[in-house]
Structures are given as C-alpha cells and as structure tokens.
Amino acid sequence: MAHTTISAAFAIPQLLRGTARIFPTHSALLRLKYSALCSCTMNGTMKSKRKTDHLERTANNFRQEVISPAKVCGITNESETVKRLRLAVTNKDFTFKAGQWVDFFIPEVAVVGGFSICSSPGLLEQDGVLELAVKHTVHPPAHWIHTQCSLDSEVALRVGGNFFFDPQPADSPVNLVLIAGGVGINPLFSILLHVADLHKNQESEKIGYKMGTVKLYYSAKNTNELLFKNNIFGLMNEFPGKITCSFHVTQQSSQICEELQPYITEGRISEKDLEKHVSKDTLWYICGPPPMIESISKLLENFGVPTDCIYFEKWW
C-alpha cells in the first residue's frame, strides 16, 4: 500500500510535483490502515488523545490510494465565516461515500488540509464536481482558501474517512438521526443529499436502496451560522415527512426572522428531542465539537442505543 500511494503522489500534475514534500512520508503511510469492515468511528475510540495535525489525527483512518488533481470552479460565501468551494475532478477513479473527507494538498503550502465533503456522491458521478465548506481560521489550508484561493486554482485531493452512510440495495431500511454542531454539518449535509438521491431513485425508477426517514438536528451559535439552511428547506419541501429538520441556536443576539421562526429553537438540543427517536431501526450520526459528541453519545448509551448504531466524526 505504501508503495502505490507514493507512486500516486508523483502522478499529480507538474504544478504539484514541487509539493511532494507535503505528502506523508513512507513511515507515515505505513501507519495508514484500511478499515473496510468499519463504516465509521464508534464510541470505543472516544477517549483518544486530541491531535492538531490532520494527517496525524487521521493516520488510522481509511484512505484511498488515488490522489487526484482538482480545479476550483466555484467560490461562494456560505456565511460570513465560511466559504463554499466547488472543485472539478477529472479523474474517473476518484470516488467518495457520503460523509467522507479529503486530504487537501495546496501548492506551496506545506500543511495538508482535511475538509469534509458537503456534496453528494451523485453530484460527482453526474457532473464531475464536489463541494467543500471551509470555515476561516489561521490554519494554513483554511487561511489559503479564504485569502488566496480563486477560480481555476489547482489543488490535489485524496479521499479518506471511516464515517459514511453507504447502504446497498439489498440492505434493510433504516431511519437516520443526524446531529450537527457548527461546521460539523458538512459530512451530515452530504449524507442528507445522498438520502435525497436514494429517495429520487426509488420514486422515479423503483430501484436501489429503500430509505427510511431522516431527522436532522442542527445547532449553531446564531441563524447566520446555520449553513445550507435554504438547501435543507428545499429538501424538506421536496420530501415531506421523509426529511425533517430542527434548527437550534445557542447565542442568538438579534430577532429571528419570521420565515425561520417555525424551524428554530433557542437553546441546545435536548434529551427529550432525541429520546423520541430511539428505536432498533435507527442509526445515529454525530459531527461537531468533542464535548458535544461525548455528551450526546453518552446520552444515547443511557437510552439503551447500541454503540454500533452510534457513529461520529471528531475533527477537533
């Protein structure tokens, strides 16, 4: 595995060959372990020591061998602090599952970024593009995206992550509860879009996986920081009763607009909110700050939810 991955690093365009130093070393690559039997990180690893470097933090996660060049083909402001990038990928071997992330290689930036994909696998299959939503921080890759990235900027991507939802046609239907905190919405929004694609396939062609219901609980500081809310409203309207969402704000200082009021709760996601969804046919996906993940995971365990039904992505 190490040999083929190193070879992939040298297969990227000439533009990026000067950045070979930013790819993992041989010893680091040996630490990357495939985990094909595990679809996401579970409670058993919750107490691992926090690491600040993306490659170190995700060293034991699944990674594809393919490293693909990509070009920025769209940039929008998702909020005052978050930019949404659209990236064109021409490599047909580049694929991902809803919920996974990418290693983000930038020419002349020594630090490798790690960002969850916020678009659906279907968008990549149909249009050859994927999307990332990146919050402004001093971390070099995020800082580059907010200060230097422009249309036609060229980067390289490699897919990784054990946190995903990828049901197969013969699998039994399940319901999902998605719980997001802040920019932790990114992989869960990818999963939500994938669920919408599964519903469309069932409705139009009566083929593929038969999806249950999805409930999204999404908490942010204020309504301005609720990413993708218009897209989420669109999905709720397109799939009434199948996709529902409850938005929560914890530090709202201004009046909530009338359009949003029916969907907004001021305060954190509560035990009562979650307990009503407990069932043997429900899977729980959580992404957000570690204290939130640890608190909600413990709460679900106290409700009797099996640990193999609780999945989380812990970035920080």
Automatic annotation (TrEMBL):
UniProt xrefs under SUPFAM superfamilies: Ferredoxin reductase-like, C-terminal NADP-linked domain, Riboflavin synthase domain-like
The UniProt record lists the keyword Hydrolase: no
PROSITE patterns named among the record's database cross-references: FAD_FR
Keyword Ligase: no
Domain FAD-binding FR-type: 65-168
GO cellular component: mitochondrion
Any one GO molecular function term: oxidoreductase activity
Family matches, as Pfam families: NAD_binding_1
The organism's place on the tree of life at top rank: Eukaryota
Keywords carried by this UniProt record: NAD, Oxidoreductase
Name of the protein: Oxidoreductase NAD-binding domain-containing protein 1
Taxonomic path: Eukaryota, Metazoa, Chordata, Craniata, Vertebrata
